[in-house]
Structure formats: C-alpha cells, structure tokens
C-alpha cells in the first residue's frame, strides 16, 4: 500500500506509547522536585505534578520528536502553576471584597455597639496630652505622618514616636477598662 510522503511524516512524528513511557519515566523525579520548588507544599506539588502528567500525555501530539522532552514538560508545569496563581489571586481579591462588604453590613447592623465603643475610645483619649491627642486625631482623619509633622512643627521621628506611645497608652487604658468590667 502506498502512503504519501506527508502522511509518512505525520506518522513518524507521532510518539508511540512506549516512547512516551520512555520519555516520562526518567523525568518524573525531576518534575516532582520542580513542582515542589514551585509550590513549596508537598500536597500542592503532587497535584501540580499530576496535572502536568495529564496535560503532557493529552497534548503529546504537540511534542516535536527530537526536541527536549524534559524542557517541554517543565514548560507545561510552569504554565499550569502560573495559571493557578493568577486564578487564586482573582479569587483572593474577590474574597477580600466580600469580607469588606460583609464588615460594612456588620457595622450598619451594629451601629449602636460601634458608637459605644467609639465613646469609650474618646474617653480613653483623655489620658493623652493635648498635642498627642491632636496627632492621633489627625492620623484617624487620614493625615499622613509627614502631614502631621508639618502641621505640628515637630520632626517626623518625634511624631511617629509619640503616636506609637499614645497608641500603646490607649491600648493599655482600654485593656484596663475591659478587665474592670
């Protein structure tokens, strides 16, 4: 039976099951180490390795004989890893948005408790010096440390130090109030 030269080339380019097995076996340990390097987690590495093997076998018709099988399969692994990373970032940012929306809903539902807490903080701020209280209030209003330093004519380091110490005093005051209740 006569085959065209084009058909013969295609047939010669398709790897047999034995050739696939010979290409995969020596590279399995390397691919497992690479998966662990990418993921830094044994279970995720095993999942990445399995997905890579599945894709390499299912896309074997795209492999060109005579090229480096190890590099080809490593590229598949890297692409799967990066795709999974991008996908997880999308889900993470969506989850953060949901949490922010839920916390906004929580704040609306518990406005009374929030106002009581705000009153307690204001009372606790009475222990601060007027200049320190002003710095804390400016920080709460959204001013940057540099803006606070400019407004109060104090060096930036002094502003940061005083805000830190004031927060520490407020935290201690609030903890004492909770302990007394």
Mean pLDDT: 78
Computed over alpha carbons, the radius of gyration is: 31 Å
Task: Classify the fold: give the CATH topology of the largest domain.
Answer: Rna Polymerase Sigma Factor, Chain: A
- Helix percent reads over 70%
> In this structure, how is the largest beta sheet organized?
none
Q: Give unreliable regions as ranges.
A: 1-7
Beta-strand share of residues: under 5%
CATH superfamily of the largest domain: RNA polymerase sigma factor, region 2, helix turn helix motif
Order of helices and strands: HHHHHHHHH
From the N-terminal CA to the C-terminal CA, the straight-line distance is: 96 Å
Number of strands: 0
* Name of the CATH architecture of the largest domain: Orthogonal Bundle
- Oligomeric assembly: single chain
- CATH class categorisation of the largest domain: Mainly Alpha
Count of helices?
9
Shape: rod-shaped
* SSE-based structural type: mainly alpha
Total domain count: 2
